[in-house]
């Protein structure tokens, strides 16, 4: 059953500075600007990252006289929940966010028996133009700020705590946008997601995934950050001729360049790279492409790779659909037979357009 809730939307404005935009030095400087003692910076960070509070009026360890000043200077209300849609008996929840400039984007919270995963956006829309992805067909509106990214995480963690008595365990940058096209803000957000309180949310780096369509130089740069997060490379085709069409950025960085960058990432971090591959009927699901994909991955990445097959999710106006199950099984079996680890993704949220490739800021 699909449930819909609608909320009041704020007026337009540009996002001002927020505590979550600031690193430790920035927080110290902001507190000093307000004429407050230095220890208040750590106190505010603990409230935000440790206690998940973003309203200084609820921070009882602050003097009442300064709460309003701090709220105005460091805790603007960046996001409003415009709508929520749930399915899977409430275990999957898609949120439509509206920023103070009217920009809309989405995140998806998914509860599983042994983990709770939040899929977040790094951009409003996407400029990568992949034709099978609803977000890619929107075009890019703008990058999200670090705080707009982190507010998705904080609110998701609050929802899990208050609604289910549970904790957020996994964060995936697989919502709207190309994370590595918003590189500086995404890296800053990853640091604050993974650092322990009072400077971050304390989620294990191994439980954070950053997805990319293959911006090879940015993949190498991310490897050098030594963040230890999982890299997910959205490949979708093993040959340049097809991938030039399915993933237009391939016209700039070819399959071999993307895979070489992924190998650099694996070597630098010791982490296995996830290869995302959406199976599209009669487009990229041929047995020979399964063999070609597996051979390439085995040669370039060796054991440091895992293929995640994704049954294509329907998007409005598209004539493409998912590969039939027998075709999917053969593709899977051929990859495994070639000695490459492989699974088929358990798709969540398809009926509320919350699955991979379906996010399109509906209701905006």
UniProtKB/TrEMBL annotation:
Annotated Radical SAM core domain residues: 112-350
Biological process according to GO: rRNA base methylation; tRNA methylation
Major subcellular location class: cytoplasm
Cofactor remark from the record: Binds 1 [4Fe-4S] cluster. The cluster is coordinated with 3 cysteines and an exchangeable S-adenosyl-L-methionine.
Cystine pairs: 119-356
Enzyme class at the top of the EC tree: transferase
Listed GO MF terms: 4 iron, 4 sulfur cluster binding; metal ion binding; rRNA (adenine(2503)-C2-)-methyltransferase activity; rRNA binding; tRNA (adenine(37)-C2)-methyltransferase activity; tRNA binding
Binding locations of S-adenosyl-L-methionine: 177-178, 211, 234-236, 313
CDD domains: Radical_SAM
InterPro entries reported for this sequence: Aldolase_TIM (IPR013785), Methyltransferase_A (IPR040072), RNA_MTrfase_RlmN (IPR027492), rRNA_lsu_MTrfase_RlmN/Cfr (IPR004383), rSAM (IPR007197), rSAM_sf (IPR058240)
Gene Ontology cellular component annotations, sorted alphabetically: cytoplasm
Cofactor(s) required for function per UniProt: [4Fe-4S] cluster
Catalyzed chemical reaction(s): adenosine(37) in tRNA + 2 reduced [2Fe-2S]-[ferredoxin] + 2 S-adenosyl-L-methionine = 2-methyladenosine(37) in tRNA + 5'-deoxyadenosine + L-methionine + 2 oxidized [2Fe-2S]-[ferredoxin] + S-adenosyl-L-homocysteine; adenosine(2503) in 23S rRNA + 2 reduced [2Fe-2S]-[ferredoxin] + 2 S-adenosyl-L-methionine = 2-methyladenosine(2503) in 23S rRNA + 5'-deoxyadenosine + L-methionine + 2 oxidized [2Fe-2S]-[ferredoxin] + S-adenosyl-L-homocysteine
Enzyme Commission designation: 2.1.1.192
Catalytic site: 106 (proton acceptor), 356 (s-methylcysteine intermediate)
Keywords: 4Fe-4S, Cytoplasm, Disulfide bond, Iron, Iron-sulfur, Metal-binding, Methyltransferase, rRNA processing, S-adenosyl-L-methionine, Transferase, tRNA processing
Superkingdom of this protein's organism: Bacteria
Annotated binding of [4Fe-4S] cluster, by residue: 126, 130, 133
Stored Pfam families: Radical_SAM (PF04055)
Miscellaneous comment in the UniProt entry for this protein: Reaction proceeds by a ping-pong mechanism involving intermediate methylation of a conserved cysteine residue.
Family the UniProt entry places it in: Belongs to the radical SAM superfamily. RlmN family.
Function summary: Specifically methylates position 2 of adenine 2503 in 23S rRNA and position 2 of adenine 37 in tRNAs.
Protein name: Probable dual-specificity RNA methyltransferase RlmN
Gene that specifies this protein: rlmN
């Amino acid at each position: 059953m699909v449930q819909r809730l609608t909320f009041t939307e704020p007026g337009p404005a540009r996002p001002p500075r927020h505590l979550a935009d600031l690193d430790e030095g920035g927080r110290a400087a902001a507190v000093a600007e307000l004429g407050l003692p230095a220890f208040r910076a750590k106190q505010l960070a603990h409230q935000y990252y440790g206690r998940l509070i973003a309203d200084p009026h609820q921070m009882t360890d602050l003097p009442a006289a300064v709460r309003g000043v701090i709220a105005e200077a460091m805790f603007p209300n960046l996001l409003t929940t415009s709508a929520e849609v749930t399915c899977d008996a409430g275990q999957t929840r898609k949120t439509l966010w509206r920023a103070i400039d009217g920009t809309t984007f989405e995140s998806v919270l998914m509860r599983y028996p042994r983990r709770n995963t939040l899929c977040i956006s790094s951009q409003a829309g996407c400029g990568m133009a992949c034709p099978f992805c609803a977000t890619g067909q929107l075009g890019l509106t703008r990058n999200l700020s670090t705080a707009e990214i982190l507010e998705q995480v904080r609110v998701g963690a609050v929802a899990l705590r208050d609604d289910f008595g549970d904790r957020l365990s996994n964060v995936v940058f697989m919502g709207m946008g190309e994370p590595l096209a918003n590189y500086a803000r995404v890296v800053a957000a990853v640091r604050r997601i993974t650092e322990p309180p009072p400077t971050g949310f304390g989620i294990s780096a191994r439980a954070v995934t950053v997805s990319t369509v293959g911006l090879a130089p940015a993949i190498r740069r991310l490897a050098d950050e030594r963040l230890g997060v999982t890299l997910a490379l959205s490949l979708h085709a093993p040959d340049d001729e097809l991938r030039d069409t399915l993933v237009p950025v391939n016209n700039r960085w070819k399959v071999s360049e993307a895979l070489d960058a992924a190998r650099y990432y694996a070597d630098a971090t010791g982490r296995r790279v996830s290869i995302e591959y959406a199976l599209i009927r009669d487009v990229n699901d041929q047995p020979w492409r399964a063999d070609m994909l597996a051979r390439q991955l085995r040669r370039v990445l060796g054991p440091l790779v895992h293929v995640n097959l994704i049954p294509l999710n329907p998007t409005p106006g598209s004539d493409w659909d998912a590969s039939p199950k027998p075709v999917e099984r053969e593709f899977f079996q051929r990859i495994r037979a070639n000695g490459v680890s492989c699974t088929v993704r358990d798709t969540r949220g398809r009926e509320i357009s919350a699955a991979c490739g379906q996010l399109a800021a509906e209701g905006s």
